[in-house]
Amino acid sequence: MSKLTTGQTVIASLIIGFFIFSAIITIFIPTDDTDTTDEPTPADTTVVINATEAQMSQSEHPSVSPQKPVVKTEAIEGDPMEELNSLIGLEDVKAEVRSLANIVKVQKQREAQGLKNTPITYHCVFSGSPGTGKTTVARILARIYKDLGVLKSGHLVETDRSGLVGEYVGQTAPKTNALIDSALGGVLFIDEAYALTEHKGQDYGSEAIATLLKRMEDNRDNLVVIVAGYKDEMKRFVDSNPGLRSRFTRFIDFPDYTGEELYKIYLMRANKYGYKLDEDADALLQEQLNQAVEHKNRYFGNGRYVRNLFESCVTHQATRLSKISNPSVEQLQQLTKEDVENAYKSVLQ
Questions:
Q1: Residues 184-215: pLDDT tens digits?
Q2: Do 133 and 90 contact (CB within 8 A), yes or no?
Q3: DSSP letters for 90-122
Q4: Contact yes or no for 192/160 (Cβ under 8 A)
Q5: Structural domain includes residue 4
């Protein structure tokens, strides 16, 4: 065998070095496919951001995060009573909230004059079907409490069972405490709260309730809790625990919207975004909304149904206008009978 020349030896060394370097890179640096898989999607990013915001002030429980995003709504500027009065329908609800606000206002005036006050329950039970404005009114009430000096910040933290209950032993109390910490100075709104007591088998809902009741007492000057859900289920929920029954004595019932009220909600939404119904579309919309109310079941979406119907109308209008090369301003604004009819079919599917 002939000996390698100096040049061949150098080339061979370079080739061997290249393969060794490639092997090291393969072991320690992930491939492009791995990077793509591990990188969070926009939805994952939203979950992380929302969970982080929910723990901003949770110094006592820094390692706890809810299973799903917790919606935290800061108090906005403006007159909350004016916003309450501008809501469509809900006349009895408005009267209840105004009555509560008046009681708080007079109690504050008595306190300023050195007079004794009777205990007031600020916590509430909001009962009613989905889409009847419970969350909207809760946000408004939080701001009213702030304006009246009951709460410091008037923000609203929205959650449900999954934001309170852990999956394993020892997780629920810290998780519930962390969420409550984020609501201090504002209102904690627990939707479908009855789910805390309706799970069978090994469940930690009772632990979440016990933790909540203790914190409601410990932080009674800096926390308001509103629980919400279907009327019958909420009554059973409150009656299931003496502590709940003693703390939640103010019930506000949210009735379903009438067909006329849903029509007004639709028009308000359409006007807000610069859309108009032509005469035939307007007549068909009213007819369909009345039929929807007449044949509703307990899961009927009320205001959510109207929102979905409007968004579907906009989608079908866009499909129709895509066939026109340069639609006019009037065409871009107008919703037709065809749009409403197709939207109604889509929502029913």
A1: 999 999 999 999 998 766 678 999 999 999 99
A2: yes
A3: -HHHHHHHHHHHHHHHHHHHHHHTT--------
A4: yes
A5: no
Same structural domain, 177 and 104: yes
* pLDDT confidence tier of residue 349, bands split at 50, 70 and 90: low
Domain boundary among 254, 277, 306: 254
- What whole-number distance in Å separates Cα of residue 218 and Cα of residue 160? 22
In order, the DSSP letters of 215-262 are HHHHTTTT-EEEEEE-HHHHHHHHHT-HHHHHH---EEEEPPPPHHHH
Give pLDDT tens digits for 325-346. 999 999 999 999 999 999 999 9
Shared domain for 74 and 148, answered yes or no, is yes
In the structure, what pLDDT confidence band is assigned to residue 45 with cuts at 50, 70 and 90?
A: very low
How are beta strands 71-73 and 156-159 bridged, if at all?
antiparallel
Domain check: are 248 and 287 in the same one? no
- Residues 209 and 268 reside in one and the same domain: no
- Can you tell me which residue has the tokens 């799970």? 199
* Residue 123 is assigned to a structural domain of this protein: yes
Global pTM reads 0.76
Tens of pLDDT, residues 310-323: 999 999 999 999 99
Same domain flag for 266 and 236:
no
Closest CA to 126 of 146, 169, 97: 97
Instruction: Say if residue 196 is in the same domain as residue 274.
Output: no
